[in-house]
């Protein structure tokens, strides 16, 4: 494949406001690749796929609009761009495949790429499921104590604590029993506000700062950024996207502000004639294994294959580190929840005992 210069544009007008599921994208790419290889016209293939109920309804509607635009004279990549739901990696890979006349091969690479992204995401989520369950259990325990247990014990003595842990629990009781209609919208509003905040540049900087304070998490985040960068760069280069454009998109895919800043400088060096290996080496951000393997890929003309192997290596590292981190966090969380419940029980007992003594007098 010859590198194709692909202009990186901002997402066009958004007709559908939703985030497609990765499994929908993977299945769409795989089935489209099969149908194109079988000789079915692209627009007809998309119409057929838009009628399959295996996809979500919103995704099917988006495919129908894509088919309509293509029959109206627009290219596949332009129609994808106009939907506003596909990321630039997907769109620019398709554009490179169109210009290179190898769209069926490109769709297979698209499916493999997003399948890898989804696999790693699901593995990390499954590893974190039990720790999140423990935290959720602690929240449920606090609510049960506040709403059901504590009020009955306090009512026996006719005095309500207004300070300390029990005072806080009674405040929660008041919220959940008397002002419950405010709890859900307030919690939902805070959740939405935090989500929007952490999607901003400043919010990402704040998240990076706190995450990097913990060495194991900082190390894991670095490896995750390396994996996303290598996998995205590899699949874009193999699809025919020029190296400079691929570097820019791969940096954004890393979802790491420091990566984006450093890769921007690396990109300028590559445009000035430097080899990718030397530019990565001078950046001082990447471990030796990356720039040495990249150098090998440049020399052999198989940069895409080498980057894929680097990404696979980091995927294994991420899973190993995640399991180690979870194995450390789980007993700590269990101990924390146990101590927390014991502390509440002790506080309740001591307070009630004190109230009972005063009542006896």
UniProtKB/TrEMBL annotation:
<dbReference type="InterPro" id="IPR042094">
    <property type="entry name" value="T2SS_GspF_sf"/>
</dbReference>
<keyword id="KW-0997">Cell inner membrane</keyword>
<keyword id="KW-0472">Membrane</keyword>
<dbReference type="InterPro" id="IPR003004">
    <property type="entry name" value="GspF/PilC"/>
</dbReference>
<comment type="similarity">
    <text>Belongs to the GSP F family.</text>
</comment>
<keyword id="KW-0812">Transmembrane</keyword>
<dbReference type="InterPro" id="IPR018076">
    <property type="entry name" value="T2SS_GspF_dom"/>
</dbReference>
<feature type="domain" description="Type II secretion system protein GspF">
    <location>
        <begin position="229"/>
        <end position="349"/>
    </location>
</feature>
<feature type="transmembrane region" description="Helical">
    <location>
        <begin position="332"/>
        <end position="352"/>
    </location>
</feature>
<feature type="transmembrane region" description="Helical">
    <location>
        <begin position="156"/>
        <end position="173"/>
    </location>
</feature>
<feature type="domain" description="Type II secretion system protein GspF">
    <location>
        <begin position="28"/>
        <end position="151"/>
    </location>
</feature>
<feature type="transmembrane region" description="Helical">
    <location>
        <begin position="180"/>
        <end position="198"/>
    </location>
</feature>
<dbReference type="GO" id="GO:0005886">
    <property type="term" value="C:plasma membrane"/>
</dbReference>
<feature type="transmembrane region" description="Helical">
    <location>
        <begin position="129"/>
        <end position="150"/>
    </location>
</feature>
<keyword id="KW-1003">Cell membrane</keyword>
<protein>
    <submittedName>
        <fullName>Type II secretion system F family protein</fullName>
    </submittedName>
</protein>
<keyword id="KW-1133">Transmembrane helix</keyword>
<dbReference type="Pfam" id="PF00482">
    <property type="entry name" value="T2SSF"/>
</dbReference>
């Amino acid at each position: 494949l010859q590198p194709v210069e692909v202009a990186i544009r901002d997402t066009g007008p958004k007709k559908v406001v939703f985030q497609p599921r990765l499994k929908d994208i993977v299945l769409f790419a795989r089935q489209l690749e099969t149908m194109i290889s079988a000789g079915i016209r692209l627009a007809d293939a998309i119409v057929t796929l838009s009628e399959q109920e295996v996809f979500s309804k919103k995704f099917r509607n988006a495919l129908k609009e894509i088919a309509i635009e293509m029959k109206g004279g627009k290219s596949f990549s332009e129609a994808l761009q106009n939907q506003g739901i596909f990321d630039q990696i997907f769109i620019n890979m398709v554009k490179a495949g169109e210009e290179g006349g190898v769209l069926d091969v490109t769709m297979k690479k698209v499916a493999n790429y997003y399948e890898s992204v989804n696999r790693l995401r699901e593995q990390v989520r499954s590893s974190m499921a039990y720790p999140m369950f423990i935290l959720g259990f602690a929240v449920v325990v606090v609510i049960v104590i506040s709403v059901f247990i504590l009020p009955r014990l306090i009512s026996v003595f006719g005095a309500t604590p207004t300070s300390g842990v029990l005072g806080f629990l009674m405040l929660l009781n008041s919220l959940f029993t008397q002002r419950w209609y405010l709890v859900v919208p307030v919690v939902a509003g805070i959740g939405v506000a935090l989500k929007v905040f952490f999607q901003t540049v400043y919010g990402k900087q704040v998240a990076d700062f706190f995450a990097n304070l913990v060495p194991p998490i900082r190390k894991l985040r670095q490896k995750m950024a390396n994996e996303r960068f290598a996998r995205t760069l590899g699949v874009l280069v193999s699809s025919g996207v020029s190296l400079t454009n691929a570097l820019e998109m791969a940096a954004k895919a890393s979802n790491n502000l420091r990566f984006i800043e450093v890769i921007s400088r690396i990109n300028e060096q590559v445009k000035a004639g430097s080899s990718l290996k030397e530019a990565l080496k001078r950046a001082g951000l990447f471990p030796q294994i990356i720039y040495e393997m990249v150098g090998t890929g440049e020399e052999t003309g198989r940069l895409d294959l080498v980057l894929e192997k680097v990404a696979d290596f980091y995927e294994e590292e991420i899973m190993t580190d995640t399991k180690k981190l979870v194995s450390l966090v789980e007993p700590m969380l269990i101990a924390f929840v146990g101590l927390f419940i014991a502390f509440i029980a002790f506080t309740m007992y001591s307070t009630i005992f004190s109230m009972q003594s005063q009542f006896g007098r």
